[in-house]
């Protein structure tokens, strides 16, 4: 995992390694946090999970769900939500965006496959433990536990990732790829759940 220079508390207190933006540009953005800030927050969240600081939020019996994705909110305030998500084989998020929220993730264990719409087609990438990704506004993607990670599924062998959204999620739109190679929005839902309904 990459080392952090920005702590969870300092991100909310205004200390950022990201250079300040011009005032006119900054006032047009939905959040003062930048993708680099969200990447640092997910990295620190991952380190905190691995260090046991969130053990009180994990499944009580120590067994991770094997049928449905599971999530718990690690941090919540008016500016950012940070989530821990456990992924199960074959349960995709469906093609979606995060409405007016920026996003980022860090993979703790296992691997995720992301299918991102690049304007003409879906492009696949695999994110393994330690990998990070950020999502600007307008990013449309589908996320699923990677097939290699799915081979060793078990209640003690989860695929885990930490996600941050700023501002906190309030809506998501879902899409389908048409026969003409374009995207069609199928629905928009109000939600505060990470990466779609769990």
Overview of the structural elements:
The protein is of the alpha+beta class and 198 residues long. Helices cover 16% and strands 34% of the residues. The protein is built from 4 helices and 10 strands. The strands form 3 sheets. The protein has a 5-stranded antiparallel beta sheet with strand order 1-2-8-3-6. The protein starts with 7 loop residues before the first helix and ends in an 8-residue tail after the last strand.
Helix content: 10-25%
Number of strands: 10
Q: What is the typical, i.e. mean, pLDDT?
A: 82
Order of helices and strands: HHHEEEEEEEHEEE
Shape: globular
Q: Beta fraction of the residues?
A: 25-35%
Distance between the termini: 26 Å
Give me the side-by-side strand order of the main sheet: 1-2-8-3-6
Which value, in Å, is the CA radius of gyration? 17 Å
Number of continuous helical runs: 4
* Helix vs. strand class: alpha+beta
| Main beta-sheet strand count, sense and barrel state | 5 strands, antiparallel
Segments where pLDDT lies below 50 for 5+ residues?
1-27
What would you say about this model in short?
The protein is an alpha+beta fold and 198 residues long.
Blueprint (SSEs and pairs):
Elements: H1 8-12, H2 23-28, H3 35-50, E1 70-76, E2 81-87, E3 102-109, E4 111-117, E5 122-128, E6 132-135, E7 141-145, H4 147-150, E8 159-166, E9 171-177, E10 183-190
Antiparallel strand pairs: 1-2, 2-8, 3-6, 3-8, 4-5, 4-7, 9-10
